[in-house]
Amino acid sequence: MTLEVTDIMEILPHRYPMLLVDRIIELEPMKYAVGIKNATFDELFFQGHFPGQPVMPGVLLAEAMAQVGGVALLYPEENRGLIPYFTGIDKLRFRHPVRPGDQVVMRADIEKIKGRMGKVKAQCHIGDMLCAEGEYLFALMPGQKPRK
């Protein structure tokens, strides 16, 4: 199953500039998802991180991988409207920088769910090169109505 960005926006609560997944290319709900992030030079974070040596901030790469896991978790209708909050991140490692023009392929596997708590393992690659990997602990919480 594949999802375009408009489909992703029906599942995740994230919006620009924090929506960091452009497409889901594989999805087995509650098991795994594979997503793509196209890193383009016009993204604001490249302007200041770092001038003359643009690199995607690691925290945003970690968030992008988590969002791919979020799609797998929130795709089932009974989970729509829930928000997967981080409760921990373990073994997060950055292996290779992501630069403008790179297409990052991220895979998130749901390892364990107990009640509303769980664990996701994620990796991202550019081609065959591993860029980052980590384990995410999360709690699925009810969404809140926007404040006025």
UniProtKB/TrEMBL annotation:
Broad enzyme group: lyase
Main location: cytoplasm
Subcellular location as annotated: Cytoplasm
UniProt xrefs under InterPro entries: FabA_FabZ, FabZ, HotDog_dom_sf
Catalytic activity: a (3R)-hydroxyacyl-[ACP] = a (2E)-enoyl-[ACP] + H2O
Known EC number: 4.2.1.59
UniProt KW keywords: Cytoplasm, Lipid A biosynthesis, Lipid biosynthesis, Lipid metabolism, Lyase
Statement: the UniProt record of this protein carries the keyword Cell cycle: no
Active site: H49
GO biological process, one term: fatty acid biosynthetic process
GO molecular function, one term: (3R)-hydroxyacyl-[acyl-carrier-protein] dehydratase activity
GO cellular component: cytoplasm; membrane
Transmembrane listed as a keyword: no
Function noted in UniProt: Involved in unsaturated fatty acids biosynthesis. Catalyzes the dehydration of short chain beta-hydroxyacyl-ACPs and long chain saturated and unsaturated beta-hydroxyacyl-ACPs.
Family: Belongs to the thioester dehydratase family. FabZ subfamily.
Protein name: 3-hydroxyacyl-[acyl-carrier-protein] dehydratase FabZ
Species this protein is from: Megasphaera cerevisiae DSM 20462
